[in-house]
């Protein structure tokens, strides 16, 4: 377990694989003897989220003290930068190494390149989907906007690792190639890179499954709760606004309805025609969206038009 007061250089010394993670967080080297907290704060990275990912990827630790403290923007930054690293650097780098190690005139070599290109296409398609659909969806949640047409479970159900072709590629190289010592050395070095690539991809997928997706589920829950609160507040505001637009005569009609009078009795009591009473009741229903005498009774009590003690329930 690494903590905020540990020296950043200690983390790198113990786990050189973290060098790639530092770049994904946007952390530059040259931090001297600063602690993890000092480095993160100086480079605008959430310390808690950084350590959560570091401790998970190194030790498999995912029992966070307070999962609500995870910074969604920091997680997005990490995942987006990881995609950029993998698509823009790692995939082209390995392809170039394969080209250098294989004889382009050999049919088996061409098939290996084809297999690698198919893998690269699949992983690129997978990551572009996240960038075009999942990440923008999360940003809308951060803006407080709920989306009834999509949720993180939709992504989770289709979030399968796309490294089957990579495993197949490794096995073919190990079993069937190469024939001469020069290509053998080059392919062995490339194979080592492919293994590192596979480990990185597994790590990336695990961070999404174990940290990112659960964090977005919590964000969705909060967003839906906020959305319900906003709707309730809106309904209350509308009712209050409607109450202000009721005329005094309409309020008199409501009181009479609550007291159990018929339209004819209301007309006689208020010295107006029955048709006028009917018009008033239509306007009341339209303004309040309340159509039953029981509903008008509740409205009258809540808005102090009548005293609950005077109402025959």
UniProtKB/TrEMBL annotation:
Question: What Gene3D superfamilies is this protein classified in?
Answer: Winged helix-like DNA-binding domain superfamily/Winged helix DNA-binding domain (1.10.10.10)
Superkingdom in the source lineage: Bacteria
- Name-wise, this protein is HTH luxR-type domain-containing protein
Q: Please give one Gene Ontology molecular function term for this protein.
A: DNA binding
Gene Ontology biological-process entries: regulation of DNA-templated transcription
- Please provide an example of a Pfam family that matches this protein in its UniProt record: GerE
Q: Where is the HTH luxR-type domain?
A: 239-304
Keyword annotations of the record: DNA-binding, Transcription, Transcription regulation
